[in-house]
């Protein structure tokens, strides 16, 4: 329920954001900014949507944990 | 442009107006006291909750100043929550002053209860624990008290007062309790409370009014289980040894008839552990200063030699108190309530590593010495006994 | 991008915020569980061990006074490899920028307002972060000056109020298990204290006129922040004992629970929370700012402020995803965060330093020293 509310909020927020930013950016011919902006907003909406649909978003913490799993033994010895 | 970009952020704020879980005071039921007993299928919770209407009316109200809620549950949390089925208001637990534990529960162990109190966010750590001696927490909380209209506040205040002026209880909060259960070289004590019905109260009509609550001695724990009780004198000795002494009253007899009553101003103690051939011993240094409160008899306390006698008498008296409780704790209860083990731990960490696992058996034969110094500071508003005739000794 | 200038005093407050924010409320428990009653010695040593680390940061900063870490690594390691290294560092900054909102939500809901949804707290917090960055670095730096001042005063107040509860017995016996556990604890604490200041390298030389003066302020800020953390750990052990400190999720909060001076000064533990929020806010905003600056540098964006709000949306969702539960977070913060920040906060600058020396001394290349921004 909360996730859906957040997704709605994110959607409304990004639409307003796009309405303000995109005309301005294209008017000033800042094409790189425009590209980055669109991609990031798209990613933001996508993530919120996936979360609200109950999908598992790949967790970057898992990735980092996996990267550093070989040194877990060293850390364990630190903790004793 | 900058201003425009901030508009969406401001819009965001619309969804974030504070006070989400705000609860107004007139929708709360403030818990002041909590009683916990063990039953066959779990816990029996007795909750003493303030009754605001009765308290607001000052006097002449027919209602009781507090309302009791009793509920059973398999665990503490569900029992506490079940109270919602009979209360119109949400319980608010941050103002709990005293938690009363039934004796049966204390004998079975209080670890699980402490875990709950340390974990749950609504409970703070500044309330005191009390054991209902020979009765249940439910009974204790059912008694209305004179002077204080709210029994929970009475329990709290008289606990602090009796610690300060009589020395048979000590006010112990969660932090201290958990510390002494966790540490190997110390066991906790908790004050006990009793229901008494004295003859002097009996002319009051209501039989419930004839009952009073009184603190009496202290419960001794082995780890988290209650194993025995200290009497009033023993509790006093305990306080002398750990150096947590309030304004106690001490009396000594001179020549078996002149009674001299003193009030303790200040008493400090130091436990010094030493080790000889891997045998630990502890020396307790106690330094007490007293004022003379009353002289019943004709001892001239202004005279130097009499003061010396008095000092020796007081030293003997304190030593007697200490030895009595030490003997009981060592030989009868086998529980290191004084923290002698911790004293060794602090002073002789290497020796302690060897002793740690067998401390319960080592403790019983630990030799303890006393080094007691007494100072008499003042003699009150008069110097010699008022009715001492000249030339008489 | 380096037209925005901040003063060296603001470097003090920013560094102090970064140093304190990562450690003051939470980390005492971990340190106490490793070093027991000697946790305070461990935290003192940590401050000491941090000095050479800070020196490395300062050395790098002084050689490249107009660059940040992204520029430095690209300058030293070449375009491709440098970009990869910088990207990995930026990823760390991004991680931290949504970890902190998670912490905020977690703390608020477990201690203060348990019925409020996480999202609302996080959204507010992320909104504040974004606003700070939209206003620019100067505003953030000025705010941090005020924040640190308030936080220090409140901190001293809380510690003085707690002092009557302190028992010296809780520190004894000193060094019971020798020095090894103490060193171990300080190795762990470094990962939350000293290495955190690597994020300041996104701000420190590039936005400062006088990098030498700035270096001094960097150290001063580090000592201030480290001192606050050290004292908070010392007082936790003094008043609570190490066992309870190690068992609490928020030891300093529990510590402030004890305050009862007179009738007036009781139940004021929320002050600790204020200190934490203020310093934490500096920390997370510095990390977020660093990420945005570095990211727009990699993408060659002219105006970094344009991507702040889209990123804020991503932070909001990610702060919910990042730790599914407390147990996961507690495991992650020890077994993953420690080596993670170690590689980026220690190995990376040392590596850059070695490369710098090799290029300068062995290959005799003209490098660093007031060269322009790449």
Give a summary of the structure in a few sentences.
The complex is a heterotrimer of chains A (80), B (393) and C (374). Chain B is of the alpha/beta class and 393 residues long. Chain B has helices at 2-14, 52-56, 76-82, 103-108, 111-119, 137-141, 151-165, 174-182, 232-242, 304-333, 340-347, 349-355, 359-364, and strands spanning 28-39, 42-50, 66-73, 90-92, 98-102, 128-132, 189-197, 211-222, 225-230, 249-254, 258-276, 279-296, 368-378.
Q: What is the share of helical residues of chain C?
A: over 70%
| N- to C-terminal distance of chain A | 43 Å
According to CATH, the fold-level topology of chain C is: Amino acid/polyamine transporter I
What is the subunit organization of this protein? heterotrimer
Greatest chain-chain contact: A-C, 40 and 40 residues
CATH architecture of chain C: Up-down Bundle
- Low-pLDDT parts of chain C are none
Biggest sheet strand line-up of chain C: 1-2
Topology as H/E string of chain C?
HHHHHHHHHHHEEHHH
- The pLDDT mean of chain C sits at 87
Q: Roughly what percent helix of chain A?
A: over 70%
Strand content of chain C: under 5%
Which structural class fits the helix and strand makeup of chain A? mainly alpha
Largest pleated sheet of chain C: 2 strands, antiparallel
